[in-house]
């Protein structure tokens, strides 16, 4: 990394070399909308690239100067802000989750219109089940946070604005390497998350009451996030 702390290294896993990331392309139903998704964690970019197969997989390496960019870190607004952002862009699938999604998003989604770059978790398909479980009332927001930490998905850096795209510089691209041990750890974490969700559904069938802040609590009451102490306070 550069000695200039405003210049950070980013990686993007793909099936080809992306020397010039283009503004205005990409699917709008990704986690944070249409833009360019990167990470500071090389192993995560390698994992994402290898989903395309070893022959096609490439990790693209960039540097970006954030000194003049509006960087929005969703973690500062709490996990419900992150959940609301993902739902607003990706939607939900179950009827129960759809019942609560509009009200939840209206209460907890952060205004991202002026953000040049957004930093937040990555909700891949397996971890989309965690969001669905929360929005269906099966787990609490604190459990969502613990499950994502457990999965070690890492943060993604979402290049959003035209201005941010002018600040990104391609460094190089290479074939990714991911150790067998790292791959096993990732798969183990995801299996543990799915096992937890399955066990919770069995508990609910036996009339288990979900503790802490559920989606019903979140839309019935109004919570604010204490950034210093990192917990939700009921207003």
What does it look like?
Strand 8 (223-226) and strand 9 form a beta hairpin. The strands form three sheets. Strands 2-6-5-4 form a four-stranded mixed β-sheet. The protein has a three-stranded antiparallel β-sheet with strand order 1-3-7. The protein is an alpha+beta fold. It has eight helices and nine strands. Helix 2 packs across helix 3 and helix 4 (125-135) runs parallel beside helix 7. The longest helix has 26 residues, at 180-205. The chain has helices at 42-50, 79-90, 95-108, 125-135, 141-151, 162-166, 180-205, 215-220; strands spanning 7-14, 36-39, 58-65, 71-73, 117-121, 155-159, 168-174, 223-226, 231-234. The chain is globular and about 55 Å long.
Give keywords.
4-stranded mixed β-sheet; 235 residues
In short:
By secondary structure, this protein is α+β, with helices and mostly antiparallel strands.
Question: Secondary structure elements and their pairing?
Answer:
Blueprint: E1 7-14, E2 36-39, H1 42-50, E3 58-65, E4 71-73, H2 79-90, H3 95-108, E5 117-121, H4 125-135, H5 141-151, E6 155-159, H6 162-166, E7 168-174, H7 180-205, H8 215-220, E8 223-226, E9 231-234
Parallel strand pairs: 4-5
Antiparallel strand pairs: 1-3, 2-6, 3-7, 5-6, 8-9
Provide the helix percentage. 40-55%
Total DSSP helices: 8
Largest sheet: 4 strands, mixed
Overall SS class: alpha+beta
Mean pLDDT: 89
- Give the neighbour order of strands across the main sheet: 2-6-5-4
Helices and strands, in order, run as EEHEEHHEHHEHEHHEE
- Determine the strand fraction and express it as a percent band: 15-25%
In the predicted model, the low-confidence regions spanning at least 5 consecutive residues are none
What is the terminal separation in angstroms?
42 Å
């Amino acid at each position: 990394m550069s000695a200039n702390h405003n210049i950070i290294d980013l990686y993007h896993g793909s099936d080809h070399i992306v020397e010039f990331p283009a503004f205005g392309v990409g699917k709008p139903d990704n986690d944070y909308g249409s833009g360019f998704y990167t990470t500071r964690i090389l192993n995560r970019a390698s994992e994402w690239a290898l989903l395309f197969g070893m022959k096609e997989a490439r990790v693209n390496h960039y540097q970006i100067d954030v000194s003049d960019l509006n960087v929005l870190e969703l973690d500062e607004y709490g996990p419900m802000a992150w959940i609301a952002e993902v739902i607003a862009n990706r939607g939900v699938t179950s009827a129960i989750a759809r019942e609560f999604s509009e009200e939840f998003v209206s209460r907890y989604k952060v205004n991202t219109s002026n953000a040049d770059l957004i930093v937040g978790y990555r909700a891949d398909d397996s971890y989309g089940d965690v969001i669905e479980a929360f929005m269906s009332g099966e787990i609490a927001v604190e459990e969502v946070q613990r499950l994502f930490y457990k999965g070690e998905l890492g943060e993604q850096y979402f290049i959003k604005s035209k201005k941010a795209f002018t600040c990104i510089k391609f460094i190089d691209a290479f074939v990714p390497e991911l150790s067998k041990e790292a791959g096993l750890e990732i798969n183990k974490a995801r299996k543990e998350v799915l096992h937890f969700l399955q066990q919770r559904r069995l508990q609910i069938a036996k009339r288990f009451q979900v503790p802490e802040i559920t989606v019903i609590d979140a839309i019935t009451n109004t919570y604010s996030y204490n950034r210093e102490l990192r917990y939700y306070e009921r207003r």
